[in-house]
Amino acid sequence: MTGTLTNGTNGTGPHKPPADLDASKLIIRRAESLKAVPVWETLQFGETPTDHMLICTYDPINGWSNPEIKPYGPLSLDPVGSCLQYATNVFEGMKAYVGPNGNPRLFRPSRNMKRLETSAARLALPTFDSSELLKLIKQLVLLESRWIPDLPKYSLYIRPTIIGTRPKLSVAASNEAMLYVVLSPTGPYFPTGPRPLSLMAVSETARTWPGGTGGHKLGINYAPALLPQQIAAKRGYDQIVWLLGEDNRITEVGAMNVFAVVGRDDGDLDVMTPSLDGTILPGVTRASCLELLSAHPQSSVLPNIPPSTRIHVHERAITMEELTSWSAKGQLHELFGVGTAVIVAPIGKIGFQNTDVIPLDHPEGFGPVAGALMQRLSDIQTGKWEWEGWSVELSA
C-alpha cells in the first residue's frame, strides 16, 4: 500500500525552506601568496584586482550557500546561463577609504545595499538579506585593507554583483544566482584632474526611457552607452549628456547624475538636478549632495561658500533650452556631474546641434559649489569631517 507524503518530499522528514544569506557561516580561504601592491599613482580604474573575492550561490532547493572569501579568480558559468543570454546582471559601486587612525571606512554603505536589493528585485532575481551582505563586505575589506591607498583622492573600489545563473534557454526569471564581490584600488577617475569635461548632447539614442530600468543599477543600462561614447570621443568630447523627449530633457551625464547652478537676481543660488522619474539612477552621491546643499547655511556651512549665500535646492526637469537660455543671460554659473567613481566632476561645455552652446570657464577647474561639495564629501568619506554617521569605520 502506498502512503501519502504530507511533511516532506521524500518521506524522510519535513521540507526545509531555502537557506537565507548568513554572514555567520562565512568561510575564509586565504591566498597562498599575496601580490605586491602597485605604485598607487600608476593605477587605472578597475584594472587591478586585490588578492581575494567574496562569493556565494543560490539555488531554489538549498537557498544561499555558505559565503566564501577565496583567492581572486575566474567564475565558472553554464554557456546558456541567464546572465549570458538575458542580461540578468545587477551591481553596485562603493568605496573604502583610510580614516585618520588608519582604519578602513565605508561611505553610506546601507544605501548601496538597499539599492542592490531593489535592482535585484527589478530583474526577479532571488532575494537576499542586504544587512548580511554588508557584514560580509566589511570582512572582505578588512582582510584586504592593505590595498586601500593612503593618498588624497584615492580609495578601494568595491563592486558587489549578482548574476542570474539559471542554465536554460527558455525566457524566464532566473531562480539560480551567484553573488560575488571584488575589490580594486583606484585613483582619480579622470587622471587629468579637475579639468572641466566636454559633453556631446545626444537625443537620437536613449540610455533609458520612461517605464524602463534607468532607476536601477543594471548592466543592461550601460551597454547602450558604449557606441555613442565612442562617437563622442571621435568628435573630441569626453562624455555624453543624454537627452530625452521632444523638449530635450537632460537625464544623466555619462553614468553620472548632473547638477546645474543658476544665479538669482537677489544673489542667492538655485541648484537643480533632474528628479527621480524612473529614468534617473538614485545615486548615493546625488542624495548626499542634495542633503549637504540643503543644510547650508542652517546646519553646516559649505567650504568657501559664504553663509550669506543661500542655496535653493530643486529636483526638477532641466531642458537643454533652459541651459542655453541661462548661459546666454550669464545666469548659468556651474554644471557638474556626481557619482561614486568620480565624486564630483566639473563640466566646461556642451555640444548641442553642432554648436558648443554652453561654455563655462573656471580657472581652478571646479566652480565654487562643485568645489565645496568635492571637499566636504572627501572629508566625510575619510573621516576628517563627521556628518550624520555617513562614514562607517571598520575595525577587526
Level-1 CATH class name of the largest domain: Alpha Beta
Distance between the ends = 60 Å
Question: Which regions are unreliable across 5 or more consecutive residues at pLDDT < 50?
Answer: 1-9
Return the average pLDDT rounded to an integer: 93
Modified residues (N6-(pyridoxal phosphate)lysine): 217
Catalytic activity: L-leucine + 2-oxoglutarate = 4-methyl-2-oxopentanoate + L-glutamate; L-isoleucine + 2-oxoglutarate = (S)-3-methyl-2-oxopentanoate + L-glutamate; L-valine + 2-oxoglutarate = 3-methyl-2-oxobutanoate + L-glutamate
EC number: 2.6.1.42
Pfam families: Aminotran_4
Task: Walk me through the structure.
By secondary structure, the protein is α+β, with helices and mostly antiparallel strands. It has two domains: 23-186, 2-Layer Sandwich (D-amino Acid Aminotransferase, Chain A, domain 1); 197-387, D-amino Acid Aminotransferase, Chain A, domain 2 (Alpha-Beta Barrel), CATH 3.20.10. 19% of the residues lie in helices and 27% in strands. It is built from seven helices and 19 strands. Strands 1, 2, 3, 4, 5, 6, 7, 8, 9 and 19 form a ten-stranded mixed sheet that branches. Strands 10, 11, 12, 13, 14, 15, 16, 17 and 18 form a nine-stranded mixed sheet that branches. Strand 11 and strand 12 (249-253) form a beta hairpin. Helix 2 (109-122) crosses helix 3 (130-143). The radius of gyration is 23 Å and the shape is globular. The chain starts with 26 loop residues before the first strand and ends with a strand.
